[in-house]
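Researcher: Let's try something more involved. This one mixes different molecule types, so please make sure each is placed in the same coordinate frame as the others.
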Amino acid sequence: MSARTGLQLRSTVKPDGELEITLIDHTFPEPGPDEVLVRVDATPINPSDLGLLFGPADLATLKVGGPAGRPVVTARIPERAMPALAARVGRRMPVGNEGAGVVVAAGASPAAQALQGRLVAMIGGAMYAQYRVVKAADVLPLPAGATAADGASCFVNPLTSLGFVETMRRDGHAALVHTAAASNLGQMLNRICLKDGIGLVNVVRKPEQAALLRAQGAAHVVDSSAPGFMADLTDAIAATGATLGFDATGGGRLGGQLLTAMEAALTRGAKEYSRYGSDTHKQVYLYGTLDTGPTEFVRNFGFAWGMGGWLLFPFLNQAGPEVAARLRRRVADELTTTFASHYSNEVSLAGALTAEAITAYYRRATGEKFLIVPSREG
Amino acid sequence: MSARTGLQLRSTVKPDGELEITLIDHTFPEPGPDEVLVRVDATPINPSDLGLLFGPADLATLKVGGPAGRPVVTARIPERAMPALAARVGRRMPVGNEGAGVVVAAGASPAAQALQGRLVAMIGGAMYAQYRVVKAADVLPLPAGATAADGASCFVNPLTSLGFVETMRRDGHAALVHTAAASNLGQMLNRICLKDGIGLVNVVRKPEQAALLRAQGAAHVVDSSAPGFMADLTDAIAATGATLGFDATGGGRLGGQLLTAMEAALTRGAKEYSRYGSDTHKQVYLYGTLDTGPTEFVRNFGFAWGMGGWLLFPFLNQAGPEVAARLRRRVADELTTTFASHYSNEVSLAGALTAEAITAYYRRATGEKFLIVPSREG
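Model: All components are placed in one shared frame. Result:
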């Protein structure tokens, strides 16, 4: 057994404000006793990868050069965004949250040896590469019959959507609202809620997204582009009793609108006037940044409200190892049903760095999801 | 013992959008066995009273009529604000959160009888009146030597400022930031923090407010009107380690700026780049609405953050009766020192309803605080 060499994607912010993405030849070390070396066969481009990949670069300045198979992508970062990036300037950051592949070398420990030749899923960054060394204890062996594509996205979206439901139960809410609900994650959450009998209000931005979710059995779908949006949203929230929302957009007014509609649903037909609003706590978590602009809301929802950030890893840490293990077991059990992901495009590492591909996945359109197959040539 | 008649202030929203404030002759019932009848001798006009008193009325349309001693105040409520007021339309709401006075009649129970003739403080609404019937268990007998003016404000501001410190300890924060810090409440919080050795960053809007707080021993005072505000705020937060803020303004950008400065203080000199920001939780509570406009923030503080409403009574309910009793004891013990309030004007009930008085207390200027003395004529 010896070290292997293979391609690895790196994203660098230079001191002069240029972002550069390249594929380097990386030497992957031999796995330690408790580690395995995995040949990455499939790794998705999730919205959560784009932040590290492109940072706050202005994609209008995108340039793709370099020789065939070794693209060099550059773009300018606005000067005002540089201070927040100080700690990554000059560092060639590997990218890629999760992936799946075959264990091609294993350390001496029994746990590592037992994985030899197995197809496994992994999380932890640096997956946009041909190989990845990872702790044996951290991989999820995939069930028989599953493909690398089946397992490539089995952490971020599955655990995030299950995490929403766990958060709902932990904080004593009865139902929930989700925005950008037609996303891969949103469709997954809809399947979980249908299966578990949980009230879910799906908020989408287009009629065709509403149709997509209804075709998948969603009971409550509200289109934010429709003229009666706030009334529809309030009705759906009243019907489900939702007092918790997860908002993928982050910027703009949508998060606050969820709180406004929750309050309107709670105080509907109230007999007593309360100048402080309903005393039922209403909570919205901003877990994404599809809209990078400022967040704005009108405080017409009393004082019993909260807004905050939500992130998968802090949630899992707070929930503890038993909950995390239970959620992972469920993902493995329902990998090709509840937690199935769908990809519109499969590309090589170099293929993920063409101007056409970047433009396509950067717009995060519904149904447009890229899978990188690092073993693919060119 | 028989029922007594006296003046009581009422605020009414009429179906046509007119707000009307009047003084009515109210018959106060005999106290029940566990109750006492208190002659209200002093009751403050707190910012938290203005919402019920004027609602969202447009004070540019203010008119004061009625005979001498019985003013009738009217103002228009913008049509868009009416739906949220549905539950109070047509109701003549009594006003006034807290007050102090002498027990002039007591129910048969020993607890009530023991209060006969005592000077007590009370909370619970309807204090803008010449009398108030209240449960014996709910009053706070004032220490010997205290006046009604000393005790009039001994719930809202004292318990709110103590509640901030309790919330800080409960949620594991080490220090706190307070905005509108030159207010009566802010000065009280400063005295508590100085006495208890707690790091406090006082945010004010004017140089003279900064000078006022510094003269009272405040170590960290930051002026939001100064050009170096964000840098000064970050320095003060770094010096204290504050990760919790209480914002009285509510609208605008100040709440978000506190989170931004906390994150900047936490990540100062960070060696590792984290695209998700610091993992230390940063929290800002909006407890007031000095700025009734929308709340806006730029999410440049990672994902470990929260914003939410904070209100005294839900806090006391959550904290439980033992904590509430401990806080009330401290208020009684330090009534004329830590928890002293200062009034710029003393007025009768009718005097609180002149155009001049309303204009003065409605602008909530530092140092301008009104005390109503209901026994005063005219």
